[in-house]
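#struct-queue
[09:14] JT: dropping the first one here, sequence first, then the structure tokens:
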Amino acid sequence: MAEEEKKLAPNGGYPMHTFEDLKELYYVYIKSEAGRKMIEDAYLLAKEKHDGVFRKSGEPYIQHPIEVAYILAQLEAGPATIASGLLHDTVEDTDLTVDEIRKRFGDDVALIVDSLTKIQRMKLSKRKEIDFEAEDHRKIFLGMARDVRVILVKLADRLHNLRTLDALSPERQKAIAQESLDVFTPIAHRLGIYTIQSEMEDLSLKYLEPEKYRKILELLNQREENRQGSLTALKKRIADILFEHKIPFRMESRVKSIYSIYRKMFKKGYTFDEIYDVLAIRIITKTEINCYEILGIIHATYKPIPGRFKDYIAMPKPNMYQSLHTTIVSGDGNIYEVQIRTEEMDKVAETGIAAHWRYKESENYNAKEEQRDIEEKLHWFRDFVSMSGEQSGSAEDFMAALSNDIFNANVYVFTPMGKVIELPTGATTLDFAYKIHTKVGDQAVGATVNGALVPLNTVLKTGDVCEIKTSKTSPGPNLGWLEIAKTSSAKAHIKKAIAKREASEGTKEEAIRKGREWCLSAFEKEGIGPGEMDKMLSDEKVLSYYRVASKDDLYAQVAGKSPTPQAILDYLNVRREKRKPRLGKAVQNGGVPVEIDGGEGVMISLAKCCTPIPGDHIVGFVSKGKGIIVHRANCPNIAHSNRLLSAKWRDDLGVVGTYPVDVEIYANDRPNLLADILVTLSSKNIVCSDLKAHLIKENMNCVVEMTVYVSDALTLDDVFLALKGVRGVYDGRRVIH
């Protein structure tokens, strides 16, 4: 409803439409005879079934379906949606059945009416006459998530009910008004249907806070009256300039909604005079280029207020809203907001999703494709459908999750390609990863925010540019991730991934068998048979060290890769005792167990710059005066050398000792971080030296540098995996000097 009408009739006075009025409206865009006939047949059937029934407000009941259908036609909804609006109460209130509707009007209308009927049966709580239960709300959302057209009809139904709320008791008025604010206006907002959202909010406020509603209405009328001359002069001046530049346009003024002002005054503490965008001028033009041309002219003519410019054309809101917003000081000192947009943007701004997917007869309409298209373009709707279909958990938990993840999502984060991802306050880079795609979340190992490397528990804020780092070898979701994630959708995906992994690993008996096989393979390489291995792993010291009750429990943990058989061998130190290294000339030449083609009798040493260890891919570098120096093959210091020889670790290597490796550990700084890192290294029987740590003040990240002593590359991988299990640690890497 227009703002002028609300001002003149603050207590109601909405026009009552006839079917002929409705017909006149939809005939403009529905040309198909079959579509027109479907709507007319639906009206005649509804009129027949509701004959003799009156609403509490006094008018014939058929008036309500007509008004619902009229609101839908204003949104340019299709024949099936309008027909469903006319029939939405027939199954609930008359003897008509869903099957009869399906036979006469098809599957689409039957689905919509059936969903609406189930929603309609959610009555007020039996325990508290004026309260709605969370379970009722969950069922409402379950019904609405089945098809976006169900939402449109339900919003139209609720809007007309609010328009005629005077006929109900004060208790019922407040209950329905509160439910409208809690349940229906957030959905209208997320769908971008501003016309329904704003009117629904204003009407709800009228019954919940009547004194504040009237006060704001008086202030609005007073300001509009005081500034009428100023507003007219501003519009004329802008129009003259745009005519001069031959830019196509039309112009209108807009008054901020009563509820929006109420939120700023009573929720955010503004005074009425501090709200600059109470009165706004809206300029609608032809193209995007025209929008920016007009913006330039406005700023060249009037002084813009710093910090008040917003470009929603380049960066649309998640509900696809596009417009340029700027706030200027007019020639007489008054402040006005100016909104600039194209005709298409204006339609989307007012009617949101309904405008973007409004009925088009020239195309083959497919409801399922439309639903998929909406879920693809509106990420929140995809999550809404997913959450509404989730039956586990209490209704209260469901409503809390819906409120947090969708209704209160007000943090806008960008992908490197400029796509906007909407998140609730407190959401982390891990939540962002799962918003992008489930697979991205499952393989996430870290992130960059505004170019800086950060851990997955980093909290995001509006304006951040985030990119997720993934790895196919990532261990994937674990229980610790449930503490990091803040959105219910991310938590749900993490739980599913963990459950799937546990199911794939099978029963505990299977895990014990698998773990024992892995241990046998590792121990047998060290000359230790099955009986001796079982005896060693039954030792109380070993069980106590790994905090398990029996060797079978230890085998089950090995199946989960924590610890690995290699880590157990390191702890037992059996390889040094059970097996002596059989080394040839390479070991004699510097004690390095490496074989090099053409390196017989030459001194061999390990490079200090890249610290190669058994398991690394290596090459020999012929130095001047120092013999052959063994480097990792990817060492940048020998990348362009022509003095390289083929090298490999000896096949009968065994374990001859440990090798120093310089590493860097990246973590989110916190108390006791270093202590926890050292405890973890000690638990793996890893010696370290030269430990240094420094804080990066820009992002409060900590870099820990140290030298660790390991027997081979697999052991080093196990060390990195263990360190990533320390709270706050998000990456670890070897250092090349």
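[09:21] JT: and here's the second one, same format:
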Amino acid sequence: MMKIYASLMFILFFPFMSKPQLWTTLNPLPTPNSIHQVEFISQDTGFITGGNSTFLGTTDGGLSWKSVPYPIEGVQLSSLNFFGKNLGILVSWSHIYITTDGGNSWTYKKKQLNGDYTNSFFINDTIGWLCGTYQIVTKTTDGGLTWQTLSNNISGAMHYFDIEFATENTGYVAGYSWDTPSQPVLKRSDNGGRTWHEVLLPADVYKIKDIFVISEEELWIAVGNASLNPGNDGYTAKAYHSSDGGNSWVYHDLGLCYSSAGISRIHFEDDDHGWAMAQSHIYITEDGGQNWVSKLISSNMFMPLEDCSNPIDSIFYVVSTLPEILKTTDNGTTWNSQVSGIKGYFNDIRFSDNEHGLLCGFDLSETFIYKTDDGGTNWIKTFGQSRNGIQEILEIAIPTPGIVYALGNQDFILKSKDAGNTWLKMSFNSNKIYKHIAATDSLNIILGAIDGSILKTIDGGFSWYEYQLNQPSGYTLYNSFEFIDNLIGYATLSNSGSLGKLMVTDDGGLTWRISDYGSVNKIISISCSTNNTCLISIANEGLSKTVNAGQSWEPITTSSDLTNTIVKVFDDLTFLAAFRNTLVAVSFDGGNNWEVAIDENPQGGVIKKHLFISPSKGWNIGTGNLIQAYFNPTLSLVDACRPDQNEGFIYPNPSTNSLQIKIDTWKTIAFFDIKGRKIKEFDFANRYQLNQIDLPSGIYFVELLTQQKRHIQKLLIL
């Protein structure tokens, strides 16, 4: 077998596939990325910014959001501020994005300094300031067209993250010391930002998260360290107020908060009305800050609130990194989420075909299973049960069509005989916590615990037998089982470091032996076909394969960069590798040659698990309620029938409303849109022409099935 070195493999051997359809976000919407800031310039018109250059706008009060183009990919956008209804500025890293027409159009500028921009402030429509790391302070007097650097010093490593001015001359900047992050800094300028002097802070302030300047002498600071309540039933959120430029401070107890991180934002709309926010709480004052009312906006006590906008009385918009967008129209009494989809922590996702899938996970109150019949666009909850502390559904197995098993972490398994519509709970008595499940048919189920315990049933769960891996000392079951059939299976092990072992059974898990895969490093992923062909990805090494059920292994790629590669084997020759969540590559010749299926980083949180049911169809789940899918119909779904992509079987192309078919005796012909959704299908009729296909103008993928082959071709409808 030809050995391909990965430094060339992912560059030279994947050049000939054009960039196909990107990852499609199914959940949540309008964005899977973390949200950092929200700004509404009226009751209905507003913007949100977040990770991976997320910039969205709404004109209907958040009922719908549209992407606002941002010129640089991958930037973590956080600082968005408007002065009035027209002038807005978004800064992050070395990027400056300005609008003077309320967000209808934006102008991009880049001003590279020693450090990154973190925040902005305009006092009128011409004069404004930027602050940033390494004591960056820059100023504009022409509405952001040009900027003058007033301060930028890497010595002392002082970082600024918020800046506000009361007049053209007097303003404040807040930050911290790089060497001592628990040492907050507050400075004042009386000459427009040219020079600054330090303002003394209260002794119990270890971090400033936000400042709000009311006048030259009056300001508030949001304290980023909360105090533990005397009764140890939570923390006290606190803020400080000064009426004499920081010479003296008045302490304000805002109320209970769930986190020691304290207040993240504080803001006043006028002399009386203001708000502050901490984790899962917002605090509202109507008397200038003398008294505060605490409002819990979410039952999720772990919701980190990032920003709030209060365009008019009683209406608030709050955003969180989860991501979450919450809106109230009754001054915080009730809150409605503007993020749609399933919310929770996802453990596993499984599909039996392109359309039918199951998702398991949990939220703060229950563990759940959802089902989809349309490829993940819509989900219906089919199981929900109180968590009773830590109860979770961990993994799902679909051994045969219609039969599903779901493993819980507290001595139970759920079984469905109708593809996940209804569930029967089956318990087993064990003092082990089983975390992995493999089901080779409707009767044979094997569970695995971290300590190497094996629990097996051959009658669908009515009786159970316990065995042991008898793994080497110091090693535990690492990430999964992989069973080829009722007899042959694999278990990957690891120790407390990065070393690994691979154990193989050929008697259904009764006994296990160590398989030498040519390395001591742990196995990140393993996948097998039904004919004893397996592919593994080895941490810091690359990919290896066996064709004899683990008796011998041969490397097919070598690179220390292949640390996080997920592999999938569909048959003896058809492989897939998902590389660092950004590159999906496929091989149709047993790993000798590879081609790119997709090379785009899926947006959103950290990817937790990939699932691929064919080289052209896959899903992933991740943090932040993330569910995504990719579809690439230009790749063959059946290795042995892989078509010549240059040979068309339909014409004319482009077409309008009819097609000629060159292939005799076809079974079905189906039309898919660019997102992989089946639009139309026609059955075999010994015909060579399709009339009145009635498809809207656009690009489609046409799939034609014969008795032996599958053909795929791109079609343009005019």
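[09:30] RK: nice, looked through the second one.
[09:31] RK: The longest strand covers residues 158-165.
[09:31] JT: good to know. Residues 215-296 form one domain.
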